[in-house]
Amino acid sequence: MGLSDIQERVEKEAVRVGRDPKAAQLIAVSKVQPNARVAQVLREGHRVFGENRIQEAAGKWPAFKEEFSGVELHLIGPMQSNKVRQAMDLFDVIHTVDRPKIAQAIARIKNETGSCPRLYIQVNTGAEPQKAGALPDEADAFIDMCKELGLPLEGLMCIPPSDQDPSAHFALLADIAKRNGLDGLSMGMSGDFEQAIAHGATYVRVGSAIFGERTYEIM
Ligand SMILES: *Cc1c(COP(=O)(O)O)cnc(C)c1O
Q1: Is 173 within 8 Å of 187 (Cβ atoms)?
Q2: Which of 6, 58, 143, 158 is the most buried (most CB within 10 A)?
Q3: How many other C-beta atoms are found inside a 10 Å radius of the C-beta of residue 118?
Q4: Ligand 1 centroid vs 159 CA: distance in angstroms?
């Protein structure tokens, strides 16, 4: 596999379910991948990348951004409140807004600097204790709060429980987004991005299927 195969599968699945071939955008998840492999995917022309650790992204992306123009960087991992400013500086899109304290910190910095990444709220669709995200029955209120803070909220993100059929989780996320008037759906990874596209994903986050297995795992 590789970038072009995955890009082709993304577009094929969108068309198969009656959507525009570009309806779901591919985020290449480059966490813990060797720089040479990331550079290869950049040279192939891809520009949309995801990282799950702010520190790691800060170490490698400023140089890549200098060498390759038009890079769009997505934060797909958890954020501590003391890292919000750095994350807002580095990333174009944040997928993991998950609690009021983070939303308020983002709003404060947005009001101070006048700029803000595009935002997604992470929903813990499986209500897993070890996972970040707003609980499904708290999502509507949290979405309202983000709207009231004037945040540029684009949609919702989820990571389904690894031991369940992800379809029900994708459907739940799509449902919460729809009833709240949000268009963006960040869902689907290497093993299930086609199912996610069938449920309306607008971003799929694919790592190992593009770059190969990670030598170690950070979640
Ligand atoms: C690592 C990661 C991915 C990509 O996972 P793969 O299975 O390698 O495609 C997607 N989303 C999040 C939040 C991740 O941390």
Answers
A1: yes
A2: 158
A3: 17
A4: 9
- Reported pTM: 0.96
**Cα–ligand 1 centroid distance for 137 (angstroms):** 25
pLDDT per position as a tens digit, 110-125: 999 999 999 999 999 9
Contact criterion met (CB below 8 Å) for 142 and 121: yes
Position 109 pLDDT exceeds 90: yes
Q: Tell me the C-alpha distance between 177 and 65, whole Å.
A: 32
Q: Which residues contact 29 (CB under 8 A, 6 or more apart)?
A: 49, 50, 51, 52, 76, 189, 205, 206, 207, 210, 211
DSSP state of 123: B
Which ligand 1 atom is the nearest neighbour of the CA of 95?
13
- Answer yes or no: is pLDDT of 14 > 90: yes
d(CA 126, CA 164): 9
